[in-house]
Amino acid sequence: MSALIDLPRPYLLFLGDADDATFLKTGLGLRDWAPALCVAEYKCDGALASLGMPVMRPGEAHAAGARALVLAMASIGGGIREAWIPCLLEALEAGLDIVSGAHDRLSADPRLQIAAERLGRRLIDIRTPPADLPIGNGRPRTGKRLLTVGTDCALGKKYTALSLAAAFRARGLDADFRATGQTGIMIAGSGIPIDAVVSDFVAGAAELLSPAADPDHWDVIEGQGSVFHPSYAGVSLGLLHGSQPDILVLCHAHGRENIVGLSGYPLPSIGEAVSMSVRLARLTNPAARCAGVSLNTAGLSAEAAADAIARCADQWNLPVADPMRPGRAFDELVNACLA
């Protein structure tokens, strides 16, 4: 596991100059799933967006225990904005490393690079995969693995994996969440950014991420993309084969009918998605099975969500739950994963 990115924690969450919480996806994920790792928030003067956390400048946050400033927002185009540079330099001067999931590289800015070298601080770009990744070999390995897969992108694969890993641990099981995306890596503190790995090494990266383990140990692996997505099917398939999952949980957004952002590509039915995902998974794990469906019902009332979950379960004869709505349906999904 030495090739995984390993992050300094806890964090000061940097919100940049965001005026709308829509741009704080990473910050929201950290606040909701790793609150113990979040010391405070910090933003440019005049910025309006907030995560509702204590506000501290970098020096205060370092004194309170923070060891890294995390870029907790996303700019349009994934860049590092000029307005952020003074704040990032202040963080380095205060003794904090900087962690970024932006497409731009922190080290590409000479001001940050020079300051980091002078102060002995780290500039950590999450979307830079390790250099020593192996090629997948497909050999069976011990331990148990669950992978979240989807009918599309951006519909809850990370939240589902986090919820299931927490539920497994609550039942006394030895379970780890294995992160494959920038926010997941920041939550877990380690992982591999699968979407930045050269295609030949995606399966090998997945094998490294979920290595041989004790027979009773669970790795719950964050899925990426969808094998039905014209743009991202490649990374999804490599992750599927390398993970060698015993269990799949299919994630779907209630009411979504088409691939987001691509006209002319309707989503598969739940049945088609389950069948295809299992068939592809069985190349490297002939015993792979789908335990159920994670249905994203965001925006629905509790009553409407319960109705949508029940109808989906009846239609496809599978356990169905929204992991963000704890209760009997989610307990039944967990039972099916462990059966």
From TrEMBL:
Domain named D-glutamate N-acetyltransferase-like C-terminal: residues: 135-327
Domain of life: Bacteria
Pfam family, one: DUF1611
Gene3D superfamilies hit by this protein: NAD(P)-binding Rossmann-like Domain (3.40.50.720), P-loop containing nucleotide triphosphate hydrolases (3.40.50.300)
InterPro entries documented for this protein: DgcN-like, DgcN-like_C, DgcN-like_N, P-loop_NTPase
D-glutamate N-acetyltransferase-like N-terminal domain residues: 51-129
PANTHER family: DUF1611 DOMAIN-CONTAINING PROTEIN (PTHR40690:SF1), GLL3100 PROTEIN (PTHR40690)
Identification of the protein by name: DUF1611 domain-containing protein
Provenance organism: Sphingomonas colocasiae
Lineage of producing organism: Bacteria, Pseudomonadati, Pseudomonadota, Alphaproteobacteria, Sphingomonadales
